[in-house]
Amino acid sequence: MELLAKLEQHLQGLHDQSLIRKRRSVETPCAPRMTVDGRELLAFCSNDYLGLAAHPRLAEAMHQGVQLYGTGSGAAHLVSGHSRAHTLLEQRLAEFMAPHLVAAQALYFCTGYMANLAVITGLAVGDKNTEIFSESLNHASLIDGGRLSRTSLRVYPHADLAALREMLETSTATNKIVVTDAVFSMDGDLAPLPELLALCEQHQAWLVVDDAHGFGTLGENGRGALEHFGLRSPYLVYVGTLGKAAGVGGAFVAAHRTVIETLIQRARPYIFTTAAPPALAHALQASLDIISGDEGRERRAHLRALVAQLRDGLRFERWHLMPSQTAIQPIVIGENEETMRLAAALYEQGIWVGGIRPPTVPAGTARLRVTLSAGHSHDDVARLVETLNKLERN
């Protein structure tokens, strides 16, 4: 069949370039040690940055949520799917982020991808004179949101404030939207948010911040990049992911109440999808208790210590450890084949680290994406460091 032959030819091309992606089946809860396809592995590839995904308090809260609300929501939020659990979670999230947002309200989404699509398309809808300014290393969901907005879209180079300033100064749009990751998922570095916010306030532009990898891990209280930089502004539209450091699932948008009401009325990814199970929202309230409390602060301190241990211990001559102070510690290898060969060598030694290749990262910069968790021990990191140093010398 010709149609299948074309697909098979495409797949063979991916295989020849070492670009085939493969799934592995995890048989145990997300944790530093997992059973994967029948093997016990030490994992450095999840985004469970605070080690909460299998926390007993969250499991107990999830069980309680199922008892209270059942397993499914049954409908979209604007039909009959909006539960009391959703309302309580949104209130908690708004209060949590209120120090950094003016007249803060929050809106809960089933995934971070949907939240980003909703924010960008929702802010752009109904205004033909809209222009979006997107960071070149933004996550795919932000890129797709820009494309789906069907408005003018301009991409500025990574962290290039001068280029963005020129774009804003020359723009004639009356509705400007600057969009950026807070922590870049494949590099681990932080966006220059204070400078970006100053530009947005100067040029009357929204600043949409996707803090998928910063929420829960950055800031004294885990409020993410906004707390890390000490920012507060009515121009901020904040997206936080709840399936990474928060250990459960979904995402939220927090912003001025007028922005949130606009998304409820305009954002198709919110209006036309079934609401997430209420039990998730119930469990997330327990997650917020941990993140904002003493245990959360202790876990963030331990995570920072692990990051320092890894960076101090690695000694590379050929490979390149990228300049990141976050839980994401990328090691650039270069070529796809060598990167996947190295990932396989680690796997054979019982260590699971993901190999990242184009188009996720630029050609020639294939890398190992090491992610650390507060669930890791210092002995776990020491084992990884020793193994990587030996492999690099061979």
What does this 3D model show about the protein?
The protein folds into two domains: 130 residues, Alpha-Beta Complex (Aspartate Aminotransferase, domain 1), CATH 3.90.1150.10; 237 residues, Type I PLP-dependent aspartate aminotransferase-like (Major domain) (Aspartate Aminotransferase, domain 2), CATH 3.40.640. It is 44% helix and 18% strand. The protein is built from 15 helices and 14 strands. The chain has a seven-stranded mixed beta sheet with strand order 3-9-8-7-6-4-5, with helices on both faces. The longest helix has 20 residues. The relative contact order is 0.16. The mean pLDDT is 96.
CATH topology of the largest domain: Aspartate Aminotransferase, domain 2
Distance between the termini: 46 Å
What is the number of E strands?
Answer: 14
Shape: globular
Biggest β-sheet strands, sense, barrel:
7 strands, mixed
Second rung of CATH, namely the architecture of the largest domain? 3-Layer(aba) Sandwich
* Sheet/helix structural class: alpha/beta
> If you average the pLDDT, what whole number results?
96
Strand order in the largest sheet = 3-9-8-7-6-4-5
Radius of gyration from the CA trace?
Answer: 21 Å
Helix content: 40-55%
Report strand %: 15-25%
Q: What order do the SSEs take from the amino end to the carboxyl end, as H and E?
A: HEEHHHEHEHEHEHEHEEHHHHEEHEEEH
Number of helices: 15
The overall number of domains is 2
Query: What is the CATH C-level name of the largest domain?
Result: Alpha Beta
Instruction: Give the full name of the CATH homologous superfamily of the largest domain.
Output: Type I PLP-dependent aspartate aminotransferase-like (Major domain)
Unreliable spans: none
